[in-house]
Amino acid sequence: MRITNLHYFTENHRYYIFRDFSLSPVDAKMLSLVYQPVVGAYAVSLYHLLYQQLAGDKLGFSKAEQLRRLFLLMNVEPNEQGRKLMIEQTSKLEAMGLLITKHRYVVETDEYVYEFELVRPLSPGEYFKVPHLMMLLRDKVGKFAVISLKEEFFAPEPDEFMGRTVNTEDLSLAFYDFEPFRLNASMIDAELEQALSEVSPARETPAPAGLAEQRIEYSDIIFHFPRASSGNTRFVENLKYDHGQMETINYIFNKYRLMKADIRDLLDTDGVFSADGDLMGDLLQKKANEIYRQRKRQGEYTERSLRRMDAASDQVDGDGDEHGVPEEHFVAKEFYLPVPQMLRSQCDNPDQYNMFVRNLPYTNFLEKFFPGAVPKYIEDTFEKLNVNYKMPDEVVNVLIHYISYNKKSWTRSYIDSIAASLLGKQVETFEDAVQHLRKGAEDGQLKGKKRATKAQKPNLKVVQSDPAGDALSDEEMEKMLLLAERLDRK
């Protein structure tokens, strides 16, 4: 909690709670076994206390109360030390993603009110996939304790099936295939929709932290997919249970800013699925890139982007999916890249900048270095590296950083020369790209110093005729003639 003056956080200020979830037994176990060793028992107690301000079987907002109630229930004196303690505990919860604190000014009553928005704890599968959270837990309890904690949450597969080849057939029946649930799509009950909107919370459910990008769900694909005429219908239906392939689709969907109809058309294309039903990611990305480039050439890209933004603002976010959180890749300190001068006004945090370089698609990262549109030849050059030469996005981002930070030339020939070195050395990871370009920069500096300190070539001695020299005596001339005769005889 960012509080610059303790007088802004006193027992006389009012607060209320907002939450849109209910704790499950797994959530409670995560709080006690995983979160508590990191933030401490006092912070977890505060989380439970805030959770209980609203009945367990309800969602939404609690009544507005004075902060004095929290201080008394936590057995904290409402003095300077007590306020510092409460701020410290809320800061721990905020840093771990369990709490969002907002300071709201009510004009009518001329007062500041605190809003504490509780966030559901991450599931075990999500928590242990986040590198910095797992590293923090390891530093608190140790490596072997982390392994033991993870085993606490997962039940193993039965022994008789473990490690054996089992042919699996999906017998699940989809909603639209079950006749009793068949709906009349032409019937729209406007009165019911209006009534439901009136009894819902006064605001939309906030999206989970870290999901600022748009997503396409399985239902968006299957409800409008041409199942009767497409040969890929059974492969598309299997996407409901294959979250890995859905993440690939969502990545391409955001990378090239496609419409949902575009994804459905691409999945209906021949060749995007193998004979075994595996999604051909390279082919899908190539065709998505063709759509992206075609729209830019036709001048429709801006119009469609604005239309998508308007449509997204009118939609109410769903509850989310535990598989929807994209996996973030951690950046070790020794591979940190400095923030370029031109981006320091937008992002002066090295941690955030390096996460951008490591995880953003290159199309989004490249736009940050140009206040307007990216020049077409630059876009084409990096597109060729990514699509045709299979250079990963993270390596392309490091190349973009290197050119910007060192103020190098953005010409096509210079970019191709650096990229050729990366491709020739088979650099495919963020860490390898950083090391390669650092080594190249150091070698360039050493060569420059050698050229600067290198001595000039020595002056070669030239034999010159000297007519003013001493003349030969008769004896010396006679010896030279005798020597010449001997040589002739040989």
Describe the structure in your own words.
About 3% of the residues have low confidence. The protein starts with 13 loop residues before the first strand and ends with a helix. Helix content is 50%, strand content 5%. Strands 1, 2, 3, 4 and 5 form a five-stranded mixed β-sheet that branches. A hairpin with a 4-residue loop joins strand 4 and strand 5. The protein folds into three domains: 116 residues, Arc Repressor Mutant, subunit A, CATH 1.10.10; 115 residues, no CATH class; 119 residues, no CATH class. The protein has 21 helices and five strands. With 490 residues, it is mainly α.
Write the layout of secondary structure elements.
Layout: E1 14-19, H1 25-39, H2 41-51, E2 60-61, E3 65-66, H3 67-73, H4 80-95, E4 99-106, E5 111-118, H5 124-127, H6 131-141, H7 143-153, H8 190-199, H9 218-222, H10 233-237, H11 243-255, H12 260-267, H13 281-298, H14 301-314, H15 350-359, H16 362-367, H17 376-388, H18 393-405, H19 412-424, H20 430-453, H21 474-489
Parallel strand pairs: 1-5
Antiparallel strand pairs: 1-2, 1-3, 4-5
Helix pairs in contact: 1-2, 1-6, 2-4, 6-7, 11-13, 12-13, 17-19, 18-20
Give a quick precis of the structure.
The chain has 490 residues and is mainly alpha-helical. 50% of the residues lie in helices and 5% in strands. The protein folds into 3 domains: 6-121, Arc Repressor Mutant, subunit A (Orthogonal Bundle); 213-327, no CATH class; 333-451, no CATH class.
